[in-house]
Amino acid sequence: MKLIIDTDPGIDDAMAIAYAAAASEIDLIGLTTVFGNTHVHQSSRNARFLVDKLRLGIPVAQGAPFALGETTHSPSEHVHGPEGFGDLTQIDEIGENHALSAAEFLVDMARSHRGELVVCAVGPLTNIADAMRLDPEFTENLGKLVIMGGAVYCPGNITEHAEANIYHDAKAADEVFAAPPPTILVGLDVTLKTLYETADFDALAERSPDMGGFLRDISRFYLKFYKEIGGLEGCGLHDSTAVIACTHEPMFEMVETGLHVALDGAEIGATRPDPARPPVRVCRDVDGAGVVRLFTDRVASLP
Fold this sequence. Notes:
The chain has one domain: Ribonucleoside hydrolase-like (Inosine-uridine Nucleoside N-ribohydrolase, Chain A), CATH 3.90.245.10. It is built from 13 helices and 12 strands. β1, α1 and β2 form a beta-alpha-beta unit. The two termini are about 25 Å apart.
């Protein structure tokens, strides 16, 4: 499967990219970056750092710095740390971004791999909306879009109603859901059933001293947030679960429904069923223990 991850690394993004690098059934052909957990220039730097660390040799195309119509963004430093990797603040600038913007790169790759390319979007959906605006045939060329976002049948995490990725660009998300390509939504309905605990990170680091050790070290900041805010003993494998959904659909229980996104008021960013819109597949349940095992086994194969 040819895959591009649209990402804002981010601790859980780093975990998802590591999983994709280790999964034999995934041909990871590029990363596109967006604002979100960090400013977009930090997202791109972190993505290039991961590409180098994982010896991937793939392009990183930089995308949207702000939500549609906005001119500022405040990153989630309290969740992912000031530079996106927890307590790690010295992150090397390695290489350069691709000459094309993220939207241009997505359009070009979807055209070049018509019907085959899967895009896994694990940040705000601004780059996806931009690609749809740039090329009306993008949705037809794309094989599948898998989104980590939304809280359709459960409470949100950034507000009572909204999940963070959708909330950070509700307008872009609503545009995507208005005329989606074949889409799977992997939201909080399932990702909070895939808790990865301190002992899991320790076991991963033992089996994979370099990459597993890196993920364990940057996760400490993230785990502390989950403990202090949610009283949880682990973090959800949010982005990794979405990447796993790209290739392991039988691990998920899905329902089909159209969706719209609230664009104002207290419920801004809420993802709500809408039978008047084209259906997407929304994950309602998951083999959480199976996802945890699969993530560990794959990433543990890395050095």
